[in-house]
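Quick one, T. Sequence first:
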Amino acid sequence: MTTETIRVANRRTATISWARIRPALTHVALAAAALVMLYPVIWMVVSSLRPGNEIFREPGILVRDLEISNYRVGWNALTEPFTRYLLNSAAVVFGAIVGNLVSCSMAAYAFARLEFTGKKFWFAIMLVTIMLPIHVVIVPQYILFSQAGWINTFLPLIVPKLLATDAFFVFLMVQFIRGIPRELDEAARIDGCGRAGIFLRVILPLMVPALATTAIFTFIWTWNDFFSQLIYLTDPKMYTVPVALRSFVDATASTSWGSLFAMSVVSLVPVFLAFLFGQRYLIKGIATTGIK
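Structure tokens:
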């Protein structure tokens, strides 16, 4: 065997070895990055099980003295049991999901399939609203809802969803509908379906991934929304979970960090379950909805 042959064999062996090692190193790096990103959440969960005087003394994630009472105390620490705030958030989230699914799907069908005067102009206006931060419109909205007598009710948080104000979801559904062959519309029209029949019997059943994506995002965004709910809800009995969590922080007295972290963990459970069970639809909806 010549020297050149030995060199080639060594290079080939080294290449094969690196090809086997590289995936393992990639997984180790990804696991380390995931641990860094999840560490604050893990620390919060661990802190919810620690006595209040040990929470900020120990940056690690090992629990020495288990303090389960943080959950019991936190559940009844405010003026109302925490169940009340969970139910309030559930009511707002349910209304927001129903509103977005109904109104955004109808608006998307109109932009994707119907022809009307100024269609491109209004579609452009709809896209422009995506760039507007909520702080720009919150003042005129507050004045409008105040004059209507809706302050300290759930109506300002639900009714706008029934008017397709979330342009992001309208755009997402428009792109999805554009990917559905128009031949299906023609076949349904030949069978005697009108616009409403085509939408309800043909388009809507095929939009399940986009509808699921809209529902999941609406759930997460509405459940975690703090600013809007803080503006419109002033009665402690009407507080939602984010506003109730803010009530644990007292600027004039000591803050019960153990109870705060315990209720924060409770508030994360619905979001975690929604993402866990809806992940398949979420990925499918995003993967099949693109700029076409």
